[in-house]
Amino acid sequence: MTQSQMQPALKVFGLDGEANPLTIEDDVFQICEQQGFQNDLTRILVPKDTHRFAGGRVNPRYGQARGFAILCFRSHIAAASAMSKLKYAEYKYKGCVLSFAWDTRANERAAAAVTVVKTEPLKPLQNEQGRGEVNCIDYPALPMAAAKRAPVLVAKPEVHIVRTPAPSSAGSAGSGLSCYYCKAVGHSVKDCSQLSTRLCQECGLFGHTEARCPMLRLLCDDVPTTEIFAAY
Question: 147 φ, ψ to 5°?
């Protein structure tokens, strides 16, 4: 890395009194104009606070200036001349005293930029069959890649719905009868011999249960007596 490839820079500290980065950039440029080296500057950097949260809470200074600025110069001679003028200068900026120092990370940024430029892109292997494959000779610990296979089309399965036909009314009128009292098949509740001998505890009549007692229906509903006892 030659000297011309390095980017000399100075840091300006004591800018905590202002939060707007654009205001700080204009104020620092005015200081450079007062010292007479504004034409030697390439840019003025004002870093911002990029952390949304700090200490588990919302950072109130998110997007604001971090309290310092960076002056980038065209050459080392211009940077050294500006440093000699600013080193013993006293500037007060919104309740703070400005201080100037060399930016030690300028060389690191320049070296990283040169390294990225000089790094050549990786060339594909000669026996590489396709994009994304890895040669197992260079990486013997990796397992061999499976052979490529053509996609297999899977047919959609057919669904057959079997519906049971409902019993016809003719069949239910004969052998399909069942009694709800004795649970026997072949007769209805009207023809049940067990229910005909069943004594109701409410009215003392035979042929029904207490739940279907006509006396309870007579007391609860406004139904004529002749209609209730028509079956007796």
Answer: -65, 150
227: domain range? 174-231
Looking at the structure, tell me whether residues 92 and 178 fall in a common domain.
Answer: no
- The pLDDT, as a whole number, for residue 192 is 84
Give bridge partners of residue 68 from the DSSP assignment: 13
Q: Could you give the CA distance from residue 59 to residue 52 in angstroms, rounded to a whole number?
A: 5
Both 108 and 24 in one domain: the answer is yes
DSSP 29: H
- Is 201 a domain residue? yes
- Greatest mean pLDDT among 16-30, 97-111, 175-189 lies in 16-30
What are the pLDDT digits (tens) for 69-86? Answer: 999 998 889 989 999 988
When divided into structural domains, the chain yields a total of 2
Examine residue 148 and state whether it is found in any structural domain, yes or no.
Answer: no
CA distance 58 to 38: 38
pLDDT digit string (tens) for 189-203?
778 888 888 878 777
CA–CA gap between residue 134 and residue 149 (Å, rounded): 18
Which amino acid would we find at residue 67?
Answer: G
Domain-terminating residue out of 94, 118, 142: 118
Contact partners, residue 1, CB within 8 Å, separation at least 6: 110, 111, 114
Q: What DSSP designation does 193 have?
A: H
In this prediction the pTM is: 0.44
Beta bridge partners of 44: 71
